[in-house]
User: Fold Helix-turn-helix transcriptional regulator from Candidatus Cryptobacteroides faecipullorum.
Amino acid sequence: MTRENILYDNSQTIAENHIDGYLYGAELKGSGGKEWKSAPGKIEHNAIVLVKRGCMTYTMNREEFTVKNHEMKGIPNWATIEEIRYSDDFHGCIIEACDEILMDIFRNNNPLPLDSMFRLSGNNNALSLSRKECSTLFTDIRNIISALGEKQHHFLNELNYAYLYIFTADLASIIWDRHGNGIPDHTLEISRSGIIFQQFLELLGNNIESAHRISFYAEKLCISKQYLSLIVREMTGNTIGKVISKVRAEKALRLLTRTDLSIKQIADRLSFPDQSTFGKFFKRQFGKSPVEYRGNITKKLRV
Assistant:
């Protein structure tokens, strides 16, 4: 049975398979589009869009993005989609994966450069691919979609985990060509710096609402603030302060778009001293105040 998905029309589907709550994949062809006037659409899991031909244009959190042929872009699960359109000649694939499977791949197998999420963050453009790179990733996703259909396989989850890992490994190779530094660290040979950075990211995700000082994370990792700052700079190309601010800002964005908490409640939850300080922080990160951002969403809902 074809799965309903806010990112595409079922009439576009060439092939679609999924394991509910785990992994989804679809190959799409042709025009389509959706618009939400009563409430923004929300995807269930993190999505990756790969365009082989044509283009896909969508409005996410009041910003318009376009993914063209031989490009790939991620759509986070905290985003709200107001509108989406596909060109007549569109041909591409979409996969959605739950947080658990993605984190397991990144934590245990580490295929991507640890710093890639920060080196590539802030770049609203899609990842441009060569024809060969696009073809490789397209084949990988097709294999995932096909494997998802093997419902009688006794190890269906493991099978699809393997195919997803192949996709992330091929993607990692492409990213290493552009942003990697030296030879990739593999699981058994990961450096001490890489281990500490992984532990720092996990601590950051679990404590970002209340802990924003470098000293907190350094003490948890039993290292000096200077050493932790050096590792983060080495791994990301950014200061540790910028990395903490980025994660804190994304948490604020999630709370603004996915909850009914007031601006003051969000400021309190993220441990800002007052609403004004939170507003200035948010505007530095996103170019508009929390009130303006939420107001734009409300205005869209009233159209």
